[in-house]
């Protein structure tokens, strides 16, 4: 059976990169797979979260998924901390994964910064919890943006080692990453060499899912570009990361190949193209933003969706966890 699992962290500032790199693909996959989507709050607390903000961000992320088109009736939408199998399986995987593997994780190095000894132990073990998220459901496919590729390779390493260590061939499937669409790595609006990120200190660097039309127009108008007009062919974007980023965002939102966008807009100045881009971004995001605002006024609905989702997720994960415990040699109750 083909089962999709993916997640996003409720750390606020959900942005266009999250939407184009992940959530939009999650919506499309609902037609062909059984899908499980998760608000990964256990991952969020690997760096400090103010409790009141965390609570609001969990609801906001769930709302953005529903507003984007995730169907919590047909598929499963839930909150990681409400299903204990994630934390339990993560511990077992902490004992399977090797320190050397985790030492190679570039995201840990970036997030921990210079003072690595001060990072939480949870931040270091983060990929092992991510493997538990996926394998607690024996998921076969994981749609993510480019930046999660290394974590998924580690998940496959953990699954392989578990299967070998316990002579349980094929116990865990090796999940396939699905890195889909043209916008697998949306870049900052201020610096084409940095990815668009929730934690960028400049709000002007990202397009937030909650930005209103005026804010979107201002951010796109001020986005960094170079002085040349748009090229007519894709190889004209070489060495022009900011130009490439804006064209890619436009192509992704319009569901058109980059080549078609350039054939249409090649030779125009960025001022004109930015106006066209603003129109598309506003057009595509406004219905989602409006629905998010409506759902914000109904936290009890969101809480009920998450509670129901957790029950259904638990019903899949618990029997798998029982099997894992059996394989490891624990006594089940
Ligand atoms: P997170 O919360 O950082 O991001 C959520 C999703 O958005 C993608 N993404 C981007 N895609 C394109 N361009 C960007 N600039 C950009 N920024 C973020 C991410 O690749 C991700 O797909 N570790 C994960 C959450 C997680 C998870 C999982 C994912 C926890 N457990 C299990 C899959 C399966 C994360 O921090 O995503």
TrEMBL record:
<keyword id="KW-0547">Nucleotide-binding</keyword>
<dbReference type="InterPro" id="IPR024109">
    <property type="entry name" value="Trp-tRNA-ligase_bac-type"/>
</dbReference>
<dbReference type="GO" id="GO:0005524">
    <property type="term" value="F:ATP binding"/>
</dbReference>
<keyword id="KW-0963">Cytoplasm</keyword>
<feature type="binding site">
    <location>
        <position position="133"/>
    </location>
    <ligand>
        <name>L-tryptophan</name>
    </ligand>
</feature>
<dbReference type="GO" id="GO:0005829">
    <property type="term" value="C:cytosol"/>
</dbReference>
<keyword id="KW-0067">ATP-binding</keyword>
<dbReference type="GO" id="GO:0006436">
    <property type="term" value="P:tryptophanyl-tRNA aminoacylation"/>
</dbReference>
<dbReference type="GO" id="GO:0004830">
    <property type="term" value="F:tryptophan-tRNA ligase activity"/>
</dbReference>
<feature type="short sequence motif" description="'KMSKS' region">
    <location>
        <begin position="195"/>
        <end position="199"/>
    </location>
</feature>
<feature type="binding site">
    <location>
        <begin position="17"/>
        <end position="18"/>
    </location>
    <ligand>
        <name>ATP</name>
    </ligand>
</feature>
<dbReference type="InterPro" id="IPR001412">
    <property type="entry name" value="aa-tRNA-synth_I_CS"/>
</dbReference>
<dbReference type="InterPro" id="IPR002305">
    <property type="entry name" value="aa-tRNA-synth_Ic"/>
</dbReference>
<comment type="subunit">
    <text>Homodimer.</text>
</comment>
<keyword id="KW-0648">Protein biosynthesis</keyword>
<feature type="binding site">
    <location>
        <begin position="195"/>
        <end position="199"/>
    </location>
    <ligand>
        <name>ATP</name>
    </ligand>
</feature>
<dbReference type="InterPro" id="IPR014729">
    <property type="entry name" value="Rossmann-like_a/b/a_fold"/>
</dbReference>
<comment type="similarity">
    <text>Belongs to the class-I aminoacyl-tRNA synthetase family.</text>
</comment>
<feature type="binding site">
    <location>
        <begin position="9"/>
        <end position="11"/>
    </location>
    <ligand>
        <name>ATP</name>
    </ligand>
</feature>
<dbReference type="Pfam" id="PF00579">
    <property type="entry name" value="tRNA-synt_1b"/>
</dbReference>
<comment type="function">
    <text>Catalyzes the attachment of tryptophan to tRNA(Trp).</text>
</comment>
<feature type="short sequence motif" description="'HIGH' region">
    <location>
        <begin position="10"/>
        <end position="18"/>
    </location>
</feature>
<feature type="binding site">
    <location>
        <position position="186"/>
    </location>
    <ligand>
        <name>ATP</name>
    </ligand>
</feature>
<dbReference type="InterPro" id="IPR002306">
    <property type="entry name" value="Trp-tRNA-ligase"/>
</dbReference>
<keyword id="KW-0030">Aminoacyl-tRNA synthetase</keyword>
<dbReference type="InterPro" id="IPR050203">
    <property type="entry name" value="Trp-tRNA_synthetase"/>
</dbReference>
<keyword id="KW-0436">Ligase</keyword>
<feature type="binding site">
    <location>
        <begin position="145"/>
        <end position="147"/>
    </location>
    <ligand>
        <name>ATP</name>
    </ligand>
</feature>
<protein>
    <recommendedName>
        <fullName>Tryptophan--tRNA ligase</fullName>
        <ecNumber>6.1.1.2</ecNumber>
    </recommendedName>
</protein>
């Amino acid at each position: 059976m083909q089962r999709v699992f993916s997640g996003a962290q409720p750390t606020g500032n959900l942005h266009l990169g999250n939407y184009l790199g992940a959530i939009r693909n999650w919506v499309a996959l609902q037609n062909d797979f059984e899908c499980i989507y998760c608000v990964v709050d256990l991952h969020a607390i690997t760096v400090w979260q103010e409790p009141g903000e965390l609570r609001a961000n969990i609801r906001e992320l769930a709302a953005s998924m529903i507003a984007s088109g995730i169907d919590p009736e047909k598929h499963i939408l839930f909150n990681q901390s409400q299903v204990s199998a994630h934390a339990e399986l993560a511990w077992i995987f902490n004992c399977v994964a090797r320190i050397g593997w985790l030492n190679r994780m570039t995201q840990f190095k970036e997030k921990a910064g210079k003072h690595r000894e001060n990072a939480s132990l949870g931040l270091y073990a983060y990929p092992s919890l991510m493997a538990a998220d996926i394998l607690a459901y024996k998921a076969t496919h994981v749609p993510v943006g480019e930046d999660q590729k290394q974590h998924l390779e580690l998940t496959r390493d953990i699954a392989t080692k578990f299967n070998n260590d316990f002579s349980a061939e094929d116990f865990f499937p090796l999940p396939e990453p699905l890195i889909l669409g043209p916008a697998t790595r949306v870049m900052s609006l201020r610096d084409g060499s940095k990815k668009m990120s929730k934690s960028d200190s400049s709000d002007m660097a990202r397009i937030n899912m909650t930005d209103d039309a005026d804010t979107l127009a201002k951010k796109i108008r001020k986005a960094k570009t170079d002085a040349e007009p748009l090229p007519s062919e894709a190889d004209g974007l070489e060495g022009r990361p900011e130009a490439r980023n804006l064209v890619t965002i436009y192509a992704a939102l319009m569901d058109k190949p980059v080549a078609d966008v350039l054939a249409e807009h090649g030779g125009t100045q960025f001022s004109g193209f930015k106006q066209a881009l603003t129109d598309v971004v506003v057009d595509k995001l406004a219905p989602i933003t409006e629905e998010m605002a409506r759902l914000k006024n109904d936290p009890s609905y969101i809480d009920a969706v998450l509670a129901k989702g957790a029950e259904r997720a638990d019903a899949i994960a618990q029997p798998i966890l029982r099997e894992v415990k059996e394989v490891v040699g624990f006594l089940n109750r």
